[in-house]
């Protein structure tokens, strides 16, 4: 089944980010088209997570701007980014350890909950109906990710692979248009990676969600992504289809080293 | 074996989301409330009401408020004494300055003022956390200490600096006997407990816990830290303010600012730590523990002294309280950081599988 | 003008005393990442120990007339006591709370504070005791030629300021120049990481709490000779909290500067602002000042900025 890749939905222009003397990103520009799977790859410390953090408003870049659906911002506000429909998973999880799986996923629905605090205190009428409605939406995600057995378990007690799934589920609960995934397959074995790949492809396929994916496993990247951006030491050294990037000499020397 | 939920299948999300999903829990709580309203009045004597039950109920309410802020939302507050004071003095001013003001309304209005003050002093939480926030809340505590002492208007310009109320009445019932006071406070506690439980298991409760656990991630999924933190301060201060009003009106009758000093703030914090942070039941456990402990020491230590031949004066009693408190806090934090509430749920877990060991 | 200068100087001196207590806070935080709520209780404990030992040493050793000797022995004994306290705290409490989050450790030190208060008063008694270390009580009148009547400077405060300054220089050198100092800074950053590279956490912690204990002893000695040693001494130490916040938790010079600012601010506001608002504002002035600074600089004046990484 072929999919249609749409126009540019997210555009990153000349982003530069520094922490004191450490330059995390230097003049990064790339675009993301709707419905595509865009991979960001590069050695450790290349600035990939920092790039996503800029998009989410966790870091504020010193230069550059980000355009989403025609609106340009020179710094992003985390709340606005979430409202615009950009969701995120984290390299080091960042789950709410004190809550159950269900509660973690329900927290992803928070933006959509409208009843005010007084109605919630009484838990009648609209508040109760909303809780049930969002519970149904979250249960669909639980079914999708096959974590039904762990609903009520505190996430801190789950093995790493399942925690990663919950992280993904929380992002999916936001019903995002763009999904930023930060190394979703780190630390997984072959079967878990296959499961995760399947989830990512299903999300992209069924819901049309645009996916921006940071990943180290080259076979995954070559298999599932439509286009790839390569970063090294905070600079962009490659941009194109997986095949183009694979044959790019700069990319090869960054990853494999050149022979002298 | 006693606590099995086998056979209790939930067929709708509504059923799954009830406050007390397990029949044993529901029955237990209803029985407890019935006993509190109908049984205790016949079993307890005046001393128990006055010295144990009424302070327990009011401090439970205050601990519940503090737990929402500290336990659920993770914002350290050492200013709860001040918020109790605001609730008490605001309620007092409404009660004596407005003719015919009903007591309950005065107490609730006191809570509203405490909410406003709480939200104001909660603003630093948007910039700082942990210890720095604790110091900011101490600023609230000491400022209120000073304000209620020095600004005569708050005490209705009384010469002695104390405020007092008398002859409280609700719908024609006088709240003067220990039994009446007990029932009055019990109504407040049950009502607020129910509301608080609904809040913490709903969307706002999840927001609070998200901020507590990882505020950066919470912001990324669209939770506004400002709204979550200030709402925690608001709800917490409201409950604590009403508790302060109850403490002043019902328990003390006449009071000075020292009743709400920084020691009170520490006491409430200890209740929350010992009882269990992030747990409604925990607040009650903690309050019960801390109300009963000094009385237990008072009774027990002289007996020990007789046995081992040392005299026990009031100073020694105070020191022993300090030692026991300090040791318990440290012990709990090492052994069971989630407090008595966790011990309780572990106990229930054992009851589930008894007589099997695991 | 003379009066203003006098108040100013008085504030500076008082500020130095605050800095002494604040130093203990900063030390332990810098070296283990723990904020020690029990510092005030440690000051009281140390002062109590020294006061009672000063009474008891003549009885034990029979040296009744040489006050310098008995006081020195009492000082040393009190220092030993603080070492024992440090060792016990590390053994019974800190060892079991390695790598717990900051809030837990903070509350644990709260528990330790209560313990120290109770135990200290049980062992050493709860009356008011005197520490007499031969500090001169008469004030100096300085600058008599510039201002009529001169400016009154309290000799006691002056000596305290000198001692505090000396301590600060010693400690700054310790942290920056010695390998133990480096190890302490590593521990403050990450307990487990420091452990994994072989830094002996338990010994480090005993060292740190011991040093903080000695600082508490010096502070307690000076405060105690000024105010007498009693229970309220530990609450006086609570006044040093805003100093730490103002200066920034990780900065030794910050503690000094913060103490001076708060000392001066308190004195000046009490004398010049106080009469307009009913007096007694020194109980909250320091805290509100710290609060305002926090709103603009969440890390204090000299503290390190914390960057949250996700």
What does this structure look like?
- The complex is a heterotrimer of chains A (260), B (358) and C (310).
- Chain A folds into two domains: 1-85 and 177-260, Rossmann fold (3-Layer(aba) Sandwich); 96-175, no CATH class.
- Chain A is of the alpha/beta class and 260 residues long.
- In chain A, helix 3 (101-107) runs parallel beside helix 6.
- Helices cover 38% and strands 24% of the residues of chain A.
- Chain B is mostly helical and 358 residues long.
- Chain B has a single domain, classed as ABC transporter involved in vitamin B12 uptake, BtuC (Orthogonal Bundle).
- Chain B is 72% helix and 2% strand.
- In chain B, helix 4 runs antiparallel to helix 5.
- Chain B is globular and about 65 Å long.
- The model of chain B has no long low-confidence stretch (mean pLDDT 87).
- Chain C is mainly alpha-helical and 310 residues long.
- Chain C has helices at residues 2-32, 39-61, 67-92, 102-124, 155-177, 179-189, 191-196, 201-227, 232-238, 241-247, 252-277, 282-296, and strands spanning 139-142, 151-154.
- In chain C, strand 1 (139-142) and strand 2 form a beta hairpin.
- Chains in contact: A-B, A-C, B-C.
- At the A-B interface, helix 2, helix 3, helix 4 and helix 5 of A face helix 1, helix 7, helix 8 and helix 9 of B.
Concise overview:
The complex is a heterotrimer of chains A (260), B (358) and C (310). Chain A has 260 residues and is of the alpha/beta class.
- And the CATH topology of the largest domain in chain A? Rossmann fold
Secondary-structure element series of chain C: HHHHEEHHHHHHHH
Distance, first to last CA of chain A: 46 Å
CATH H-level superfamily of the largest domain in chain A: P-loop containing nucleotide triphosphate hydrolases
The CATH C-level name of the largest domain in chain A is Alpha Beta
Give a quick account of the main beta sheet of chain C: strands, pairing sense, barrel closure: 2 strands, antiparallel
Assess the beta-strand content of chain A as a share of residues: 15-25%
Report the helical percentage of chain A: 25-40%
Which term fits the overall shape of chain C?
A: globular
Tertiary shape of chain A: globular
Strand content of chain C: under 5%
- Low-confidence runs of chain C: none
Number of domains of chain A: 2
What number of structural domains do the residues of chain C give? 1
Structural class of chain C: mainly alpha
Chain pair with largest interface: B-C, 44 and 46 residues
């Amino acid at each position: 089944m072929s999919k249609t890749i749409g126009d540019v939905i997210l555009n990153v222009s000349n982003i530069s980010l520094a922490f004191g003397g450490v330059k995390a990103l230097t003049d990064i520009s790339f675009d993301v088209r709707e419905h595509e799977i865009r991979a960001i790859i590069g050695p450790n410390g290349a600035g990939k997570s920092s790039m996503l953090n800029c998009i989410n408003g966790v870091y504020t870049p010193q230069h550059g701007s980000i355009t989403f659906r025609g609106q340009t911002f020179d710094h992003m506000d985390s709340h606005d980014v979430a409202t615009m429909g950009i969701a995120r998973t984290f390299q080091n999880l960042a789950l709410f350890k004190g809550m159950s799986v269900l509660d973690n996923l329900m927290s992803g629905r928070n933006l959509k909950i409208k009843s005010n605090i007084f109605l919630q205190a009484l838990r009648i009428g609209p508040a109760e109906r909303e809780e049930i409605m969002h519970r149904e939406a979250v249960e669909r995600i639980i079914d999708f990710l096959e974590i039904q057995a762990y609903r009520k378990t505190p996430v801190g007690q789950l093995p790493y692979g399942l925690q990663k799934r919950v992280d993904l589920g929380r992002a999916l609960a936001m019903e995002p248009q763009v999904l930023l995934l930060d190394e979703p397959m780190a630390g997984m074995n072959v079967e878990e990676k296959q499961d995760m790949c399947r989830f990512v492809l299903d999300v992209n396929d069924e819901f049309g969600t645009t996916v921006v994916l940071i990943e180290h496993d080259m076979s995954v990247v070559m298999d599932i992504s439509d286009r790839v951006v390569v970063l090294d030491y905070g600079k962009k050294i490659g941009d194109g289809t997986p095949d183009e990037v694979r044959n790019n000499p700069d990319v090869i020397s960054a990853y494999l080293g050149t022979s002298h | 074996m006693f606590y099995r939920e086998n056979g209790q299948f939930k067929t709708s999300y509504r059923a799954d989301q009830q406050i007390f999903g397990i029949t044993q829990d529901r029955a237990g709580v209803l029985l407890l409330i019935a006993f509190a309203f109908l049984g205790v009045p016949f079993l307890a004597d005046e001393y128990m009401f006055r010295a144990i039950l009424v302070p327990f109920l009011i401090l439970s309410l205050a601990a519940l408020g503090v737990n929402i802020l500290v336990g659920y939302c993770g914002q350290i507050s050492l200013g709860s004494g001040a918020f109790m004071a605001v609730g008490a003095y605001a309620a007092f001013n409404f009660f004596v300055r407005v003719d015919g003001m009903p007591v309950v309304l005065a107490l609730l209005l006191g809570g509203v003022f405490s909410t406003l003050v709480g939200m104001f002093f909660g603003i630093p939480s948007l910039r700082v956390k942990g210890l720095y926030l604790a110091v900011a809340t101490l600023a609230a505590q000491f400022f209120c200490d000073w304000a209620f002492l020095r600004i005569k208007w708050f005490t209705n310009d009384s010469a002695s600096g104390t405020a007092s109320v008398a002859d409280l009445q609700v719908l024609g019932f006088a709240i003067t006997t220990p039994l009446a006071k007990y029932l009055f406070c019990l109504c407040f506690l049950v009502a607020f407990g129910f509301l608080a439980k609904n809040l913490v298991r709903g969307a706002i409760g999840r927001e609070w816990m998200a901020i507590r656990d990882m505020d950066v991630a919470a912001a990324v999924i669209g939770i506004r830290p400002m709204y979550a933190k200030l709402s925690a301060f608001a709800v917490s201060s409201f409950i604590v303010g009403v508790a302060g009003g109850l403490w002043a009106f019902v328990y003390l009758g006449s009071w000075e600012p020292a009743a709400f000093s920084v020691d009170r703030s520490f006491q409430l914090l200890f209740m929350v730590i010992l009882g269990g942070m992030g747990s409604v039941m925990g607040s009650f456990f903690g309050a019960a523990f801390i109300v009963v402990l000094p009385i237990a020491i008072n009774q027990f230590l002289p007996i020990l002294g007789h046995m081992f031949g040392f005299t026990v004066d009031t100073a020694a009693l105070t020191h022993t309280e300090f030692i026991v408190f300090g040791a318990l806090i440290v012990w709990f934090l090492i052994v069971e950081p989630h407090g008595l509430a966790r011990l309780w749920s572990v106990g229930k877990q054992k009851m589930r599988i008894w007589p099997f060991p695991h | 003008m003379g009066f203003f200068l006098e108040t100013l100087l008085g504030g500076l001196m008082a500020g130095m005393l605050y800095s002494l207590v604040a130093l203990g806070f900063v030390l332990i935080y810098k070296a283990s990442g723990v904020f020690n709520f029990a510092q005030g209780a440690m000051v009281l404990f140390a002062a109590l120990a020294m006061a009672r030992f000063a009474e008891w040493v003549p009885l034990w050793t029979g040296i009744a007339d040489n006050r310098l000797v008995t006081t020195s022995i009492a000082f040393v004994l009190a220092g030993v006591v603080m070492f024992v306290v440090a060792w016990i705290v590390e053994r019974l409490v800190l060892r079991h709370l390695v790598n717990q989050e900051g809030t837990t450790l903070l509350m644990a030190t709260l528990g330790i504070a209560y313990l120290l208060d109770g135990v200290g008063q049980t062992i050493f008694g709860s009356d008011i005791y005197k520490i007499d270390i031969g500090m001169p009580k008469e004030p100096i009148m300085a600058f008599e030629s510039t201002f009529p009547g001169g400016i009154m400077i309290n000799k006691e405060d002056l000596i305290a300021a000198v001692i505090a300054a000396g301590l600060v220089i010693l400690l700054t050198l310790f942290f920056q120049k010695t390998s133990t100092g480096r190890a302490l800074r590593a521990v403050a950053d990450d307990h487990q990481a420091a452990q994994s590279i072989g830094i002996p956490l338990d010994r480090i912690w005993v060292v740190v709490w011991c040093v903080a204990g000695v600082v508490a002893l010096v502070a307690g000695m000076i405060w105690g000779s000024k105010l007498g040693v009693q229970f309220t001494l530990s609450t006086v130490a609570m006044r040093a909290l805003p100093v730490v916040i103002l200066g920034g938790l990780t900065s030794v010079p910050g503690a000094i500067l913060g103490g001076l600012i708060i000392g001066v601010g308190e004195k000046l506001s009490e004398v010049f602002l106080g009469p307009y608002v009913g007096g007694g504002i020194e109980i909250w002035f320091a805290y509100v000042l710290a609060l305002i600074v926090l709103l603009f600089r969440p890390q204090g004046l000299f503290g390190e900025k914390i960057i949250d990484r996700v």
